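Handover notes (outgoing to incoming on-call)

Open items:
1. PKHB1 protein: sequence verified, structure written out, both below. Nothing else pending on this one.
2. Nothing else urgent.
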Amino acid sequence: MALVKSGWLWRQSSILRRWKRNWFVLYLDGSLVYYHDETQRDMDGRIHIKYSCRDVRIGRECRDVQPPEGKNRDCLLTIVLRDGSKTTLCAESEDDAVAWKMAVLEAKSTPGMLNSARKVGRGGCSHPPRSPPTSPFCLAAPGVTHVIVREDPYRVSGDQMALGLLAGAATGAALGSFMWMPCWF
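PKHB1 protein structure tokens:
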């Protein structure tokens, strides 16, 4: 997975509102992952920016948040999620907070997975002469590289997850009932 930005940020816990320092890594696919330290062995959590981020606020926009001791309010960074929850972070400097905001917004707006790229040939189209003119590859000048963006096929939605759990439970119950049947042979 391609790395967009990484570094130390302070993260405010959701229950006790304590500040904890974590190593954050933002990947090109929109995953913001935070770890205990730079070794990236023990993951503390993950935020799917592309799918769950609604807004990113910095500095004075982060109302009702007290920065960690010794830090300025301008270093604050709040990621507002679609479910209404917030993740509050604090950077080492105001410039670092602005850089993180720009990186998160870029990851949020970058289209899904990049599956393939094609180079347009000399004639302006990369499709065979008999293919329909509605091909998306006819819209550019020769020498332009096209990138086809598709939805992540491995992304699981909530209803798919529920259906999978239900199917697993039903299969487990059916197989479990065989264990109680007496053996007649």
